[in-house]
Structure formats: structure tokens, C-alpha cells
Amino acid sequence: AGVVFTIITILVIDRLLHTSYIIADGVLTIEKGRFGGKKSINISDIGNVEKVKTLFTHYVLVEYSGMKHAAISTINEDAFIKAINTKQEQ
Fold first, then answer.
1. If DSSP codes are grouped into helix, strand and coil, which group holds residue 66?
2. What's the average model confidence in pLDDT over 57-74?
3. pLDDT for residue 40 is more than 90
4. Contact 45, 64 (CB under 8 A)
5. Burial of 55 (0-12, 13-18, 19+ CB in 10 A)
6. Does residue 74 sit in helix, strand or coil?
7. Cα–Cα distance measured from residue 7 to residue 74, given in angstroms and rounded to the nearest whole number
8. CA separation for the pair 27, 43 (Å, rounded)
9. pLDDT tens for each residue of 70-86
10. Cα(62)–Cα(52) distance, integer angstroms
11. Residues 81, 51: contact at Cβ < 8 Å?
């Protein structure tokens, strides 16, 4: 059981430290750490971007392609939302 929890902890820490969000060429790319996958979202497909605050955390919720959602944990939510909105206007 200890080995399983150690592996899960390593995966969670990797995802926390190495997740990156890249906005380029009209695409938002989410790279989920070294062991996670990569997700690409066209900026034109993004319908709604909003800040969400809960009791323990805060994040940016991105709604795209109808009812699909992505939760973005970033330090500066306002700058991220502004960057998305700027790219949508271009």
C-alpha cells in the first residue's frame, strides 16, 4: 500500500509543478506534467471563461465546444482571462 501511495504522490506533485498553459497560434495548449497528457483547445471554441472560488481553492473554469470544461489553476487568474479574451478578439 505504501508503494501505491508513493507513486500517486509523485504523480500529483509532478502535475502540480510541471503543468503549463500555452496560448499560441489561436490554440490553448494544456500540458499536464511529464507523465500526463496534452490537451489543445481552439481559442475560437471557447465560449465562457470565469473565475471560480471555493472554500479551499480557486481556479479558472474554461467552457469550450458546448459543454466541455477545463479547470485552469494559475497564479494570476485575471491575466489569464485577459489573455484569452484578447486572443478571442483578434
1. coil
2. 92
3. yes
4. yes
5. exposed
6. coil
7. 24
8. 5
9. 999 888 999 999 999 99
10. 10
11. yes
Q: What is the pTM of this model?
A: 0.80
Phi–psi pair at 20, nearest 5 degrees: -135, 150
Phi and psi at 78, nearest 5°, equal -60, -40
Cell of 71: 479547470
**What's the pLDDT score for residue 66?**
83
| Residue 89, pLDDT score | 86
Which residue carries 484578447 as its cell? 86
Is a pLDDT exceeding 90 seen at residue 30?
Answer: yes
Pairing of strands 38-42, 46-53: unpaired
Which residue reads 471557447 in cell numbers? Answer: 46
Locus of grid cell 496560448: 23
